[in-house]
Amino acid sequence: MFCFPVATWIGNAAAVLGGRWGAVSQRAQAVGCSREAVYQQSRRVEQAVAREQSRGPCYDEVCAENQRLRAENEALWAVWIATEALPEAKQQEFAATGSAMGLSLTQIVTLLAIIMAQCRVPSRATVGRWVAQTNERAGGILAVLDQACQALVMMLCLDEIFFQGVAQRGARGVGRRHRPGTRGEAAE
Prior knowledge:
Layout: H1 6-18, H2 23-31, H3 35-53, H4 59-84, H5 88-100, H6 105-115, H7 124-149, H8 160-169, H9 172-175
Helix pairs in contact: 1-2, 1-3, 2-3, 5-6, 5-7
């Protein structure tokens, strides 16, 4: 926003660029501004002239680009605001899926904070309750699946999750669990 007419800016630039000693102080006093303002206006006049000479973007192009960017920004905000209204059921599904993929509660809350407004992000305790409820429901289904699949197990594959529990009981119990040559039937 211009506080002084353009002619004043050009006069200030002339005082800075071609004036004799003391011209900047006299010019500042004459137009009622500080010397620093005179120097700043002179720099802006120089930049405008240099831009015009170098065939840089004209004022109309810059304004059009500014309007385009403002419209894009408004559209992005509209989309982001629409994502804020993530229903609680979807949040619970997100938390359960994240937990099943091995994410910690803190990681799940962090990811929710990325896609939701900060004031609407559920607490870590709430996410923990959701995950615990989902685990309870899944526990019943997994027990039935374990029973149905137990006879089909042909090979025992151990991983680090299994070994965390085995370390407390001792690894020797693993070898006695299934007899060699059987197709996954539990040892008696």
